[in-house]
């Protein structure tokens, strides 16, 4: 039977991916070597199987080759995470996403062919730190090591001004991608649009430039 996704490792991270995919109506094959986890997820995943994912024959038997996207969410046991990823790349799985525990783990996963490496604790820590610095910094998405997209609330320093007044590109080297106003999102903001308190700007740029922009125009 063809399934859309497989999640290997049903800890807090893998478990929440599994739940969310299920809620979105996706077919999910859940795999864990722990029987208690399998019992916990048997009504959540389309199919929950107790298995050791480092064993290639077992994964083959489970039909993993028919699945388009496999998420490896084994955390503490780095060796099992790496071995599982090697098996999945050997099986030519179309898309393999793996949770990394630390930078060293991430480097190895990239080297052995994981298509996407996620680092949820580190990324969430960065997002929360930005939000702690200012309530006006709503969200933050890392695009590369030195470029990001941020979502910032228009506060006192930008209220009543237009994009021409602020000249964000010339002054800070960042680009305003869109402006959210209540329920509307304006993806091609005009230079003379007046910003109002509570509008949300979506800005793209280098981390250095975004940081300058935040210090000057966002942080109250
Ligand atoms: P989280 O922070 O998301 O809870 P974690 O970092 O604590 O995760 P672990 O508990 O180490 O992650 O692993 C998540 C799950 O992966 C566990 O339920 C564990 O049983 C399962 N797991 C570990 N190794 C294997 C393996 N070789 N095959 C299948 N499942 C595995």
UniProtKB/TrEMBL annotation:
Domain RCK N-terminal: 2-119
Domain RCK C-terminal intervals: 135-219
SUPFAM superfamilies listed in its UniProt record: NAD(P)-binding Rossmann-fold domains, TrkA C-terminal domain-like
Membrane-crossing residue ranges in chain numbering: none
Domain of life: Bacteria
InterPro entries per UniProt: NAD(P)-bd_dom_sf (IPR036291), RCK_C (IPR006037), RCK_C_sf (IPR036721), RCK_N (IPR003148), Trk_Ktr_HKT_K-transport (IPR050721)
Protein name: Ktr system potassium transporter KtrC
